[in-house]
User: Which sequence fits this backbone?
């Protein structure tokens, strides 16, 4: 059955099959089961409440609780609230169709408490004086048992009320723990993101320094290249000047020789 496979409610399809309906979940479900059922009900457009009252549409419970006829079961019967299993919610959501609640009803498993009849307690003490001793003793024992039963019921109601408060406090505590866990995860995620941003910033600065170093090297190489070209140009001019000097000396010697020959 679906109730045997209650998991978390993530990725549930959203619908409107439970709009206007309010559910109360039995304390017989564990925290994870409750959370999964709450998410399923919300996915169907419904809402949940911790307390049973006349505004509740369905009381989601288990067969064992109905058979034990607990305080909440009796209260649900008093307010005409439908007692259904978790399958009603889970299968309606999985099929995206609001199933018939009667197919999942647990009301047939309830064994109501047999009321006690203490009609003899209305008589005055003098009425019993005319009754034989065995009968009087029997009636007295019945009255005592009836009173004890009434006291036990009162104690049971107090215990149930105290248990309901404890269950609500426990549920609130579990919810608070889940909130703290979510906050812790959020803080850890923020720290990781901050570390990632810091590393990215350092890598960017390193790359910028590397680029700046490359640019500086390029500038030095350009200057060296310009200096080399200047040196080459100076050397070329020096060679041309030397060549021109030699040419002038040669022409001067040649003219001098021609002049001497002409004089002779």
Assistant:
């Amino acid at each position: 059955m679906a109730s045997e496979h209650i998991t978390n409610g993530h990725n549930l399809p959203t619908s409107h099959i439970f709009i206007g309906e309010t559910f109360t979940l039995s304390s017989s479900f564990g925290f994870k089961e409750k959370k999964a059922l709450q998410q399923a009900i919300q996915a169907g457009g419904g809402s949940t409440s911790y307390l049973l009252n006349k505004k509740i549409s369905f009381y989601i419970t288990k067969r064992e609780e109905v058979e034990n006829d607990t305080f909440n079961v009796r209260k649900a019967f008093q307010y005409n609230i439908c007692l259904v299993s978790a399958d009603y919610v889970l299968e309606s959501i999985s099929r995206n169709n609001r199933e018939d609640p009667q197919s999942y009803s647990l009301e047939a498993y309830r064994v109501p408490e047999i009321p006690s009849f203490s009609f003899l307690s209305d008589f005055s003490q003098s009425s019993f004086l005319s009754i034989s001793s065995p009968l009087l003793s029997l009636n007295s024992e019945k009255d005592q048992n009836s009173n004890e039963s009434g006291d036990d019921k009162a104690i049971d109601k107090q215990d149930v009320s105290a248990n309901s408060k404890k269950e609500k406090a426990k549920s609130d505590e579990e919810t608070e723990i889940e909130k703290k866990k979510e906050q812790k995860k959020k803080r850890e995620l923020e720290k990781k993101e901050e570390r990632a941003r810091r590393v990215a910033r350092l890598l960017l600065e390193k790359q910028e320094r590397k680029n700046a170093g490359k640019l500086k090297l390029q500038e030095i190489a350009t200057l060296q290249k310009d200096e080399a070209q200047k040196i080459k140009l100076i050397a070329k001019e020096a060679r041309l000047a030397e060549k021109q000097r030699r040419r002038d000396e040669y022409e001067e010697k040649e003219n001098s020789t021609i002049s001497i020959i002409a004089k002779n």
